[in-house]
């Protein structure tokens, strides 16, 4: 199979039914999968790898938006609430459009910065559940 490459140009992204993709500058969906510890016993076949629990997260970097319903306002107005999210990656490319859906634990993002700089915010939100138990869903849309 030959090389395939894409620039990140277009997503659709909602939290709690509100679209925020126009404020996003960067995003990373991290499945939170860690390697388990290798354990040894004196048995002839006495090694095994311990199970781990995935801890997925969604890292966001965005242009701060303090308007009513803006992403900064939304995060500060809904601390510790669970909210449904939908993230569509490459929604404009047939055969490559994929989607993640699930629930996020909302937390306020840091505010502030240097004078005369564009106000940006970075936050990492916990995804509740994981792919293995079906509470974080990944699907190929087209």
CATH architecture field: Beta Barrel
Q: What does the main sheet amount to?
A: 8 strands, antiparallel
Kindly state the mean pLDDT as a whole number?
94
Number of domains: 1
Helix content: under 10%
Q: Over all CA atoms, what is the radius of gyration?
A: 19 Å
User: What is the CATH class?
Assistant: Mainly Beta
Return the string of H and E elements.
EEEEEEHEEEE
By secondary-structure content and strand pairing, the structural class works out as mainly beta
CATH fold topology: Elongation Factor Tu (Ef-tu), domain 3
Number of discrete helical segments: 1
Separation, N- and C-terminal Cα atoms: 20 Å
Shape label: globular
In terms of DSSP E residues, the strand content is 35-45%
The number of distinct β-strands equals 10
Low-confidence stretches: none
Task: Write a short abstract of this structure.
This protein is mainly beta and 142 residues long. It is built from one helix and ten strands, in the order E-E-E-E-E-E-H-E-E-E-E. It has a single domain, classed as Elongation Factor Tu (Ef-tu), domain 3, CATH 2.40.30.
What is the fold's blueprint, element by element?
Blueprint: E1 11-15, E2 18-19, E3 24-30, E4 38-40, E5 47-49, E6 57-63, H1 71-77, E7 82-89, E8 98-105, E9 120-128, E10 137-140
Antiparallel strand pairs: 1-2, 1-7, 3-6, 4-5, 6-9, 7-8, 8-9, 8-10
Note down, in words, how this protein is organized.
It is a single chain. This protein is mostly beta strands and 142 residues long. The chain has a single domain (11-31, 42-140), classed as Elongation Factor Tu (Ef-tu), domain 3, CATH 2.40.30. It has 1 helix and 10 strands; from the N terminus they run ββββββαββββ. Strands 1, 2, 3, 6, 7, 8, 9 and 10 form an 8-stranded antiparallel β-sheet that branches. It has a two-stranded antiparallel ribbon with strand order 4-5. A hairpin with a 2-residue loop joins strand 1 (11-15) and strand 2 (18-19). The chain is globular, with a radius of gyration of 19 Å. It starts with 10 loop residues before the first strand and ends with a strand.
């Amino acid at each position: 199979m030959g090389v395939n490459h894409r620039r990140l140009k277009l997503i659709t992204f909602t939290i709690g039914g509100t679209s925020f993709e126009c404020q996003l500058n960067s995003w990373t969906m991290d499945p939170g999968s860690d390697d388990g510890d290798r354990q040894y016993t004196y048995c002839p076949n006495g090694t095994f790898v311990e199970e781990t629990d995935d801890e997925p997260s969604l890292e966001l970097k965005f242009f701060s938006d303090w308007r009513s319903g803006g992403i900064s306002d939304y995060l500060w107005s809904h601390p510790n609430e669970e909210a449904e999210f939908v993230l569509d990656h490459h929604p404009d490319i047939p055969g490559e459009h994929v989607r993640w859906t699930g629930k996020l634990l909302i937390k306020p993002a840091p505010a502030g910065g240097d004078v005369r700089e564009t106000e940006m915010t970075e936050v990492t939100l916990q995804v509740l559940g994981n792919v293995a138990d079906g509470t974080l869903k990944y699907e190929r849309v087209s």
